[in-house]
Design goal:
Rossmann fold; six-stranded parallel sheet; about 425 residues; Alpha-Beta Plaits; homodimer; about 35% helix; ACT_dom (chains A, B)
Chain lengths: ~425, ~425
């Protein structure tokens, strides 16, 4: 074993960073044996240097992140500060000074992964980011490496623990969205400002990363169709139950049937209770991958939290250090298919639509005509009436999302349709 | 991209080998893009050269496997013939002649992995074997690489599809073992001689491989406690249901509580219906991994079959080819912890015991005394009587397996115990 240590600079020492530092110290012997050389924490860049950080010598703490990543003796930079800047500049600076980078930064990778990959490649260094998607669950490495000899056609997953916790609460307790969000906040599952989670920005970033890797093409955050889950109601869950379904916020990346394009989207959807994703409870994450030869695989585990995310960071750290010792690099960006990303309108899916309608003869015929005019075939209709009001629940067969949303727009214009109570896509069948 | 192709020799062209060859041909462009050089099938060693193999040029077929792996122009040897010899000699010969090896041979790796690893290391080549455990499910790579910065404490899995199919049939249809086995055979899930599956030799080999990698120590097939599932009865399933459990054939690899030893075992066990492994149906495989930082992860997918296994082989092929181009090697054998493997007697588990007893006063007291004398604490007892006969169902708290089996031996000697109807371990709680 090499005795000279590999030097690691840590950017950020919050929930994840402090766990990374702790494990590097407490498991130093194991890490050294697995890498083939000791690893040494050479510096920790933080914003608040005065804060006491147990187990981290004060002399390692610095507020000068730029200076830290510019040191020529640093072998690996671990970036767990998140956000676009200064993270991007710090990472590219690290590459320029000869370090490899392990990052957990989903937002930056989804926004501008290409810049990071290009800098890594230019300087012959590694960019690893298992922790950016689904916390501790090995997903990036299986997609980039285990399935490198296969053709992935679909990735379907629950990649945000906060929203899964909220939806699970709504499902099991009958709570409304606000009530379930309050509970998630009280238990620390939701942040004070939950926007990134509940409006699905977080899940959309992960979908972009997964789609890019799965289909070997470039997918940016802007390419991902995004719908949050703040408008899911207890009534939607009641409808889902009648269908034998539950509701999950899903990230779905698909190759088009003709193989010539891909799509990536994040939205709430009904999935059958028999689908393995339906039983993913609380803040857990799980991702289904469908590949041509492998068939259907599922990866399940804690999708967030300090220790699980640190586990993913440290797995990458070991890999990057091994590569460094071997003077090699792991897989870089793979975008050779150059498959374009289609818009949401081209996605083929099913709709579950609840309509409030006038309770008089001919309404169903009128509604059915609108579906037919848009080329949307109806799977089932359920009609209920009470107190002069009636409701229609229509579940469609698979059709392009544009045709389905066109149908809904036309339905809204019918005099006999008093309102569209809810629209939900149906997936996982 | 390098234009000179990497040359691959394929040993075996059965269910898996023919799929490997097919995908190498049909997806040649994708593989080349992902590797950075084309790969070329340079020879296929088979036993029956006259058999027509669609898509494989006849001039590539040879019966001289030894000659094929001795060619100095071969970059990678893919071994899918199985068994100990000639596979072992062919693999070590391949290393001697400069090739790296991708193998799906669980029996050989469990029996004598050390010899293969040593040969790979001596010649600076790669030994990859994702396909040896749980078919297409990425498991070896996540354990070797993704969790390389974590501490795995437990691996608990369903790693044999044939027996899971049989047990699932028994559970859902109430069928007996023979009937379920017949159905598995008719559907092609069980081989004409099902011994390797039903007596758990196959699962034991996989447990040895998983334990060695998870705990960074050497675990051989002989170190694995093994019990087949041919004696599981419909009555056992009925008992399991009363417990809120089902029965699965589990491979369990554990680090002892004091961290100083490990155990590996394969046997049928009751697991609670709420455990994710309980809902693994048909011939699917699933493996739970518990790690200190990552928490509980699960990997699920098809555990066997030509295409899924080929997917795993080709993922390894891509990795090994990339390493070859980079003049590097992936992770080798990691046995630095040198943790000893304890015997089954030291495993801490729970027993579910059904006893046929005399229906007279004092029997329960007598039985309870035997448990107490062996230091085994009873969790629940259920007593039922009919027609002068009575039965006792005892579920214990956790205790060393030696104490539990000592208890059972002592119970058999009691005059009032007419027979031990069944003994089953309870896991996954």
């Amino acid at each position: 074993m090499r005795t000279r240590p590999l030097k690691v600079a840590l950017l950020g020492c919050g929930v994840v960073g402090s766990e990374v530092a702790r494990i590097m110290t407490t498991h130093a012997g194991d890490l050294a044996a697995r890498i083939g050389a000791p690893v040494e924490l050479a510096g920790v860049a933080v914003r608040r240097p005065a804060k006491v950080r147990e187990g981290i010598p004060q002399e390692l703490i610095t507020t000068d992140a730029k200076g830290l990543v510019s040191r020529d003796d640093i072998d690996v930079v671990v970036e767990v500060i998140g956000g676009i800047e200064p993270a991007r500049t710090l990472i590219t600076t690290a590459f320029e000074h000869g370090a490899s980078v392990v990052s957990a930064n989903k937002a930056l990778l989804a926004e501008d992964g290409a810049t990071l990959y290009a800098a890594a490649e230019k300087h012959g260094r590694d960019l690893y980011f298992e922790a950016a998607v689904a916390g501790a669950i090995p997903l990036i490495r299986p997609l980039r490496e285990s399935l490198a000899g296969d053709k992935v056609n679909r990735v379907l997953g629950i990649v945000n623990g906060t929203t899964n916790f909220i939806l699970d609460k709504m499902d099991t307790s009958g709570a409304g969205y606000s009530e379930a969000l309050d509970e998630a906040t009280a238990l620390g599952y939701a942040e004070a400002d939950p926007t990134a989670d509940v409006e699905a920005f977080d899940a959309a970033a992960k979908a972009a990363i997964l789609a890019g890797i799965a289909f070997h093409t470039r997918v940016r955050l802007d390419d991902v169709y995004r719908e949050g889950m703040t408008e899911v109601t207890a009534a939607d869950f009641a409808s889902a139950k009648q269908m034998g379904c539950t509701i999950k916020l899903l990230a779905i990346c698909e190759r088009a049937a003709d193989g010539r394009s891909v799509t990536a989207r994040v939205h709430p959807a009904m999935i059958p209770l028999s689908h393995p994703l339906a039983s993913v409870r609380e803040a857990y994450n799980a991702v289904f991958v469908e590949a041509e030869a492998a068939g259907r695989l599922m990866f399940y585990g804690p999708g967030a939290g300090g220790a699980p995310t640190a586990s993913a960071v440290l797995g990458d750290l070991v890999a990057v250090c091994r590569n460094k010792l071997a003077e090699a690099t792991g897989p870089g960006e793979s975008v050779y298919t150059q498959l374009p990303v289609s818009s949401m309108g081209e996605v083929v899916t099913r709709y579950h639509i609840s309509l409030d309608v006038a309770d008089k003869p001919g309404v169903l015929a009128q509604v059915a005509t609108v579906f037919a005019e848009h080329g949307v075939s109806i799977d089932t209709v359920r009609q209920t009436g009470k107190d002069g009001e009636a409701s229609l629940v229509v579940v469609t067969h698979r059709a392009p999302d544009a045709a389905l949303s066109g149908t809904v727009a036309a339905l809204r214009k019918l005099d006999t349709v008093r309102g569209v109570a809810s629209i939900m896509r149906v997936e996982g069948e």
